[in-house]
Amino acid sequence: MKKSPSKKSGKKPDSASALIDARIEELGGWRGEMLAQLRAVIKDADPDVIEEWKWAIPVWSHDGIICTGESYKKVVKTTFAKGAQLKDPAGLFNSSLGGNVRRAIDFQEGEKLNKKALKALIKAAVAMNKSAARA
Asked: What is the mean pLDDT of residues 14-33?
C-alpha cells in the first residue's frame, strides 16, 4: 500500500487541496485521471464545496460530508455519506448497497463517467446536507 501524499515527501502540504493534487499525481494513469475527473465534476456541481483530507483520502463537504474519493488497485470509488437516502434514477450506485446510510460508485479502468447523473447526485447530496443543517 502506498503511503499518503503527506508522508511521501516527509513534508506536509499546506492544504487539503494540495494533498488531493498530490494523490492524483501519485496515482497517475487511469486512476489519477478518474479521481481528477470526479473532483472536477464535484466542484462544477457545487462551486462552494470544501475540500478536506480525512482518513488519508479526499473528502468533499458542504454542510456535512458529500462524498469521498478512494483509490484501490482496480477501482476508484466515490462513497456518498448519505447515499442510501438519495434518489439515483441513473443507477450509478453499484457498491455498498447493503447498508442503511452510505452508497458508493466503483469506477473501473476504461469506464466513462456519466457527468450529468453524477452532478445530479452531488447536488441532491448538498441539498440534503443543507436541509439537515437548517433543521
From this structure: 94
Q: Cell triple for residue 123?
A: 447536488
d(CA 81, CA 66): 6
C-alpha cell at 44: 462544477
Q: How far apart are CA 27 and CA 36, in angstroms?
A: 10
Containing structural domain, residue 90: 14-134
Stated pTM of the model: 0.87
**Do residues 106 and 34 lie in contact, with contact meaning Cβ atoms separated by under 8 Å?**
no
Query: Rounded to 5 degrees, what angle do the CA atoms 80, 81, 84 make?
Result: 75
Mean residue pLDDT of the chain comes to 90
Kind plus residue range of the DSSP H or E element containing 110: none
Residue 44 · residue 99 · CB < 8 Å: no
**Among residues 47, 45, 22, 46, which one has the least CA distance to residue 35?**
22
Q: What is the CATH number of the domain that holds 24?
A: 3.90.1150.200
Whether the predicted pLDDT of 10 surpasses 60: no
Q: Tell me how crowded residue 96 is: count the other CB atoms within 10 A of its CB.
A: 17
Burial class (CB in 10 A: 0-12, 13-18, 19+), 91: exposed
